[in-house]
Amino acid sequence: EDEAAVRGIAARLLRQRGYEVIEAADGEEALVLAEEWAGQIDMLISDVIMPGLDGPSLLRKARQYIGDVPVLFISGYAESDFSDLLQDEIGVSFLPKPLDIKSLAERVKQELHAET
Description:
- This protein has 116 residues and is of the alpha/beta class.
- The chain contains five helices and three strands, in the order ααβαβαβα.
- It has helices at 4-16, 27-36, 55-66, 79-82, 101-115, and strands at 44-47, 71-75, 92-96.
- Helix 2 packs parallel to helix 3.
């Protein structure tokens, strides 16, 4: 999430629920962090539209570091507006904006427990 206030609130809520959160201000920073934390990331949460590297492009480049972990895209756009950018991707879900923090936490829990 490139909006610092939204990212901060979401990260704080997830940390309160016991999750370790690695924050990135944009797609480029997220890609660097994905490489740095390769093999240790359990889930990727990303905005779809960000300045520079957008969410779908980030996912394609980060897959080599994050493997087949679940991915949650958050967007103010309809899922159908960008679903063609996600062809051939598995384990991708969508949460619409405006972001409901409780829904985010529930979805993260669902996606992570679906893996086990």
